[in-house]
């Protein structure tokens, strides 16, 4: 089962180029930090990026230092840094969260439920997405759940082991580097509420000041490095603007752009958004949480279960109180939610504890998930037969290979479905439920692999970047004319170079100034939606346009203007 979870966690890391905007921007930061040997903060196009602490970026840079070479010059291949490598840290932290979930389940004597919970967590919509893109939320999730697990290990030790508490204090303090104060805040509110509930006032009063000391010691080297890099301005921006400013609801009128308005949402935001993000398991989560938290029953009253419930409520409280809200901020809740769901599901299947309507929800969820999984390869086969243009665009070899993968997925799903149905009918519900994750993973991975070439063809920057890369051999200076950090990040990543940004919307002479800034050949990457502005500004200049050949939608949305070609 661990191998199954590892395969699910690794799927979608190394099989496609940079797709999402976050991959492009944050991936470019990791590549630039590794290439320029920068560790203090993330760096984007030569500028320090102070929005978040850099644990995820540090991990990515470390992996790049281990697995990549850095002898490529600007305008050559990206120094051996591949797209999957910059996505790998998020996947590793996500897998670590699943391992903590399994450890909790083992401590509850619910190992089978733990594997079901880990699979549901790994395949839930939000967790699946954010364990494959270069964002800090996956690292935050691991640091929070790992800190809580270390506290529980120290709290339940037969003897008082100071080393265990010191390890917990260190990791909970280090969780700041994942995403700022929100990490220690989630951990320590959970711990404080639990200790208060248990009336362990002396332990609480001892741990809090010790944490303060450890926290200062853990942060001191980075704070000093920040001060050396940018002085008090960096300290202010990191700790005030991007920590308290995001959590509290206030404005700083002295700032040119108010950073505290980012992701401002109403208090009920998560109640509306989480059900969608928990798909396809939402119908199981609702009755499971109801069963865990209902007061009239004595179920789930053992100490660890109570601690998990306390932690879930404490983290949810932090999220709802914070002024800045986004769906991805709720990721630390997912291991807890799905552990509770897995335990409830095991009880419902083995002991019949579920009510008739809850049983119907279980059956409905499993049927819907199976139908959705089987629909994916079926849709690919139909698109292949009817020669859908989007599917065949990457070429006949990719289309045929995808067809064979989809056919294999459909065959495995059909044969396994018959077997699982036989087990259900003959009273072996628990083995059938435990086998189902493996079947769903096999079918889902094969079906997903079938679609990836077509999706990558339409979403990749590579064809245009490779064309621009060839032009850089003659056009020594290539710039970007746009305001999208994410598109800029993708070109920086693939061109292995920082790029000058030419703001053609704010300066009517921007292109003229750019073209006259050097006598050698110059290239300007222009988004298609800004071509009208670019053509008007360049109408008195000699230039030619180039576009990527055999390109999908993303690469076809840019043009390269080449100036001073004859000098």
Can you tell me about this structure?
This protein has 3 domains: 260 residues, no CATH class; 84 residues; 102 residues, D-Maltodextrin-Binding Protein, domain 2 (3-Layer(aba) Sandwich). Strand 1 and strand 2 form a beta hairpin. About 1% of the residues have low confidence. It starts with a helix and ends with a strand. It has 23 helices and 7 strands. It is 65% helix and 5% strand. Helix 7 runs antiparallel to helix 8 and helix 18 runs antiparallel to helix 19. The longest helix has 47 residues. By secondary structure, the chain is mostly helical. The strands form 2 sheets. Strands 4-3-5-7-6 form a 5-stranded mixed sheet, covered by helices on one side.
Keywords:
D-Maltodextrin-Binding Protein, domain 2; 3 domains; five-stranded mixed sheet; two-stranded antiparallel sheet
Shape: globular
Overall average pLDDT: 87
| Cα radius of gyration in angstroms | 26 Å
Counted up, domains total 3
**Percent in helix:** 55-70%
Strand order of the largest sheet: 4-3-5-7-6
Helix segment tally:
23
What are the low-pLDDT stretches, counting only 5+ consecutive residues below 50?
255-261
Profile the largest sheet: 5 strands, mixed
Class from secondary-structure proportions: mainly alpha
* Ends apart, CA distance between termini: 63 Å
């Amino acid at each position: 089962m661990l191998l199954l979870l590892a395969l699910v966690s690794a799927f979608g890391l190394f099989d496609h180029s940079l797709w999402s905007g976050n991959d492009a921007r944050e991936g470019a930061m990791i590549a630039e930090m590794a290439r320029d040997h920068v560790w203090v903060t993330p760096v984007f196009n030569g500028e320090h990026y102070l929005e978040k602490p850099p644990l995820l970026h540090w991990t990515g840079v470390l992996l790049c230092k281990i697995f990549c070479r850095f002898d490529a010059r600007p305008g050559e291949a990206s120094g051996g840094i591949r797209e999957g490598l910059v996505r790998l840290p998020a996947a590793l932290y996500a897998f670590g969260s699943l391992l903590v979930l399994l450890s909790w389940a083992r401590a509850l004597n619910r190992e089978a439920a733990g594997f079901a919970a880990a699979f549901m967590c790994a395949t839930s919509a939000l967790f699946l997405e954010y364990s494959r893109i270069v964002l800090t939320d996956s690292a935050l999730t691991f640091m929070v759940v790992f800190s809580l697990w270390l506290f529980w290990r120290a709290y339940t030790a037969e003897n008082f082991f100071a080393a265990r508490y010191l390890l917990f204090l260190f990791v909970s303090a280090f969780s700041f580097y994942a995403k700022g104060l929100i990490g220690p805040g989630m951990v320590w509110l959970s711990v404080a509420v639990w200790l208060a509930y248990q009336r362990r006032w002396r332990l609480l009063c001892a741990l809090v000041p010790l944490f303060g000391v450890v926290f200062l010691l853990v942060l001191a080297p980075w704070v000093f490095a920040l001060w050396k890099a940018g002085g008090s301005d960096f300290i202010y921006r990191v700790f005030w603007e991007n920590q308290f400013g995001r959590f509290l609801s206030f404005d700083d009128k002295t700032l040119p752009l108010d950073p505290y308005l980012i992701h401002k949402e109403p208090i009920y935001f998560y109640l509306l958004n989480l059900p969608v993000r928990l798909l396809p398991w939402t119908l199981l989560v609702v009755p499971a949480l109801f069963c865990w938290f209902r007061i009239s029953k004595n179920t789930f009253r053992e100490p660890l279960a109570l601690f998990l419930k306390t932690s879930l409520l404490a983290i949810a409280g932090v999220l709802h109180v914070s002024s800045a809200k986004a769906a991805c901020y709720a990721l630390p809740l997912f291991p807890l939610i799905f552990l509770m769901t897995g335990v409830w599901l095991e009880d419902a299947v083995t002991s019949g504890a579920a009510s008739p309507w809850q049983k119907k929800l279980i059956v409905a969820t499993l049927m819907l998930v199976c139908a959705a999984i089987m629909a994916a390869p079926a849709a690919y086969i139909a698109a292949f037969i009817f020669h859908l243009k989007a599917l065949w665009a990457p070429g006949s070899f990719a289309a045929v290979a995808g067809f064979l993968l989809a056919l294999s997925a459909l065959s495995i799903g059909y044969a396994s479905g018959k077997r699982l149905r036989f087990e259900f009918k003959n009273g072996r519900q628990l083995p059938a439920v435990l086998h189902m994750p493996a079947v769903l993973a096999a079918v889902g991975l094969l079906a997903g692999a079938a679609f990836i070439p077509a999706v990558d063809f339409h979403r990749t920057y590579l064809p245009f970047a490779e064309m621009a890369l060839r032009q850089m051999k003659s056009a020594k200076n290539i710039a970007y004319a746009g305001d999208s950090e994410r598109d800029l990040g993708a070109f920086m990543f693939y061109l292995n170079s920082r790029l000058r940004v030419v703001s053609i919307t704010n300066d009517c002479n921007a292109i003229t100034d750019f073209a006259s800034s050097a006598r050698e050949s110059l290239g300007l990457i222009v988004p298609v939606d800004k071509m009208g502005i670019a053509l008007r500004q360049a109408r008195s200049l000699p230039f030619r346009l180039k576009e990527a050949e055999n390109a999908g939608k993303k690469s076809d949305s840019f043009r390269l203007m080449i100036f001073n070609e004859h000098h």
